[in-house]
């Protein structure tokens, strides 16, 4: 219940902003994707990142999320997969990184913020990546 409330609140806040705020979210999302996700999923999000060949299960083509979900972008599922990881192993017995935990630790160490602030920063970073992924759907 808390996850859904947080997601709904954050989406409402970001969604109600001006076009500039949406552009900023896309810029942050693309930057975060390039820094953290592209090595596996590729710069274009199609799954052909530099180390994609090392996995027994290839990284997903993230430009087809909407298509695989029947046409609607799976916003909540995408957010949850980034924040909490996935059930499917990416290589051997390892899983896709749980970026939520990484972003919280990164915020606490690099910015010296409180745990509550780190949680909010993390939610914003994940939402930005989700908005970016939504923008690259084919």
TrEMBL record:
<feature type="signal peptide">
    <location>
        <begin position="1"/>
        <end position="21"/>
    </location>
</feature>
<dbReference type="InterPro" id="IPR009056">
    <property type="entry name" value="Cyt_c-like_dom"/>
</dbReference>
<keyword id="KW-0732">Signal</keyword>
<feature type="domain" description="Cytochrome c">
    <location>
        <begin position="24"/>
        <end position="137"/>
    </location>
</feature>
<protein>
    <submittedName>
        <fullName>C-type cytochrome</fullName>
    </submittedName>
</protein>
<keyword id="KW-0349">Heme</keyword>
<keyword id="KW-0479">Metal-binding</keyword>
<dbReference type="Pfam" id="PF00034">
    <property type="entry name" value="Cytochrom_C"/>
</dbReference>
<keyword id="KW-0408">Iron</keyword>
